[in-house]
Amino acid sequence: MASKKILDLLGDKASFLLDHKPVIDKSTLSAFPSPHHVEEIWTNSGRSNQVLRSIQTLISHGRLADTGYLSIFPVDQGIEHSAGASFAANPIYFDPENIVKLAVEAGCNAVASTFGVLDIMSRKYAHRIPFVVKINHNEFLSLPNRYDQTLFGTVRTAWNMGAVAIGATVYWGSAESDRQLKEIAEAFEIAHDLGMATILWCYTRNAGFKVDGVDYHTSADLTGQANHLGVTLRADIIKQKLPTNNGGYLATHHGRTSPLVYSKLTHPDNHPIDLTRYQVINCYNGRVGLINSGGESKGASDLADAVFTAVVNKRAGGMGLILGRKAFQRPLNEGVEMINSIQDVYLDKDITIA
């Protein structure tokens, strides 16, 4: 049985998550998160020995070291959402050192942030915690606001500061996605040549993905296809939002899908573990790790919401959680406690892959 703390945080959703049997049985997955992830998956690939070492460095750090799971602390919201909107609630995070300190004190596998944040702290911390440099962003100052990802620096700059990996976003479905995928494919190739791992933020973005008042940006079918495109770019890890619904293709009447996606690979009741498992199978049937994002901070429910997301990700066969705003928009000690509570889900041997 899961720990009392986790059961209490799940509340009346405990049985809903912990007793669920997905439509896609775990026996059909090709791989599960494992301490031997590199040996089981990447030694058969074209990745170099240096890349294998970088992936292993991520897996072998922090409280989740050598479990096969990842807990990454990301802070790029100062660009993506503006610094004021992100840090006004807790101004200590205007200082990059406190971003890195929180990741270190929480025992994260890595800290993911901007060129500026990580570079100014690199000589002090790059040897203490793996750095993931986010190389592109949607800056939110232009008027009118536009939704595009722009490169903020070079892969070699990230390598020179001691980063183990780079991260990047592609807005799949956007008018700019063709340019973005070419830029990031080239960046990932350079990163792999330098021996770095790659993480892709696989987000959907198109006004047409909202139909009759329903937002399908986080539908399982659209995000699943985004994941499939992401692994094609040779991402070593996929970052994706937790799915909230399904049937994006059916609502937009674009692209192609199959009725079997909705009858055999997911279930009409849209159970979050079924929807997330569909994301997992689109990451080469579990061979490429899926980490889900923790989402925005909503206040008092943040801890329970984060544990809910972690349980869904783990039981679906995902590789971990990447959580930022819920942790840094509160006092540092509370942020550490929240991240540790999420890590406890992955350390709990009674919470199994469904």
Automatic annotation (TrEMBL):
GO terms for molecular function: fructose-bisphosphate aldolase activity. It comes from the Bacteria. It is an enzyme of class 4 (lyase). Its EC number is 4.1.2.13. One of its GO terms (biological process) is glycolytic process. Keywords: Lyase, Schiff base. Pfam families: DeoC. NCBIfam families: PRK09250.1-4. Belongs to the DeoC/FbaB aldolase family. FbaB subfamily. PANTHER family: FRUCTOSE-BISPHOSPHATE ALDOLASE CLASS 1. This is fructose-bisphosphate aldolase. It comes from Puia dinghuensis. The lineage of its organism: Bacteria, Pseudomonadati, Bacteroidota, Chitinophagia, Chitinophagales.
